[in-house]
């Protein structure tokens, strides 16, 4: 296993390389470079490494676990960047997560949306959300079934504190981007159908999809946010199933 990169210069170099990949993919896909934002997926990455990435030009960070938000963000509070939550969110962690992030990309159930809404109402706040869709049909991943997205959107739209920005997916877990492509294509189809059906406004077109190994494919299929971890920070010590399977810790 490759060890976690510890060197600031390496993080800056990796970040520049990923930005170059995004630029090249946009060019190839005939898209403007500023249509795609890079989110740094920072699970397991210590605060000082995240700081290096922000200082090297990272502007958007995503965490999967409330525990990690709590332990790291106080150390990063003087830096200017945007925070999203991209992990499975449990109801009992809602209060905590809302104090740290401006967007939750992983809303996949009405119950969670309603609980968020209740809490936000009591705080007099609003938040941006993405609806997470399971495009790989692997039981181990969270996300609404593509067929259920329209009805979920219809119900979430009634909750005034939640500003729906678009859809998010993890996609098939496979090292061959061509095998992941159908997941990305499906997310775009689900979005386009929801827009046609009047369930997503034309301002809610975001597609958060694509990671270290397949961001090019995701951009070709319309990604507006790619979420990249390993290509910038090095391989993680735990397999991703640790983050995507768990339902106890959050
Ligand atoms: C870890 C993670 C990523 C980034 O994956 P890499 O392979 O490290 O680029 C993206 N999205 C989610 C939800 C993640 O948990």
Structural class: alpha/beta
3D shape: globular
Order of helices and strands: HEHEHEHEHEHEHEHEHH
Q: What ligands does this structure carry?
A: pyridoxal-5'-phosphate
Major β-sheet strand ordering: 7-6-5-4-3-2-1-8
Work out the radius of gyration.
17 Å
Based on the structure, what is the oligomeric state of the protein chains? single chain
Query: Approximately how much helix is present in the residues?
Result: 25-40%
Ends: how far apart? 26 Å
Q: What share of residues are in beta strands?
A: 15-25%
Quick check: average pLDDT?
Answer: 93
Number of helices: 10
Largest sheet: 8 strands, parallel
**What is the number of strand segments?**
8
- Ranges where pLDDT stays below 50 over 5 or more residues in a row are none
Features of the shown structure:
single chain; 250 residues; alpha/beta; eight-stranded parallel sheet; 10 helices; 15% strand; binds pyridoxal-5'-phosphate
Describe this structure in words.
The chain is an alpha/beta fold. It has helices spanning 8-29, 47-55, 66-72, 94-98, 110-123, 149-156, 177-196, 215-220, 230-233, 241-244, and strands at residues 37-41, 60-63, 82-85, 103-107, 127-132, 162-168, 206-208, 225-228. The structure holds pyridoxal-5'-phosphate. Pyridoxal-5'-phosphate is lined by residues 41, 43, 64, 86, 170, 211-212, 227-231, 240, 243.
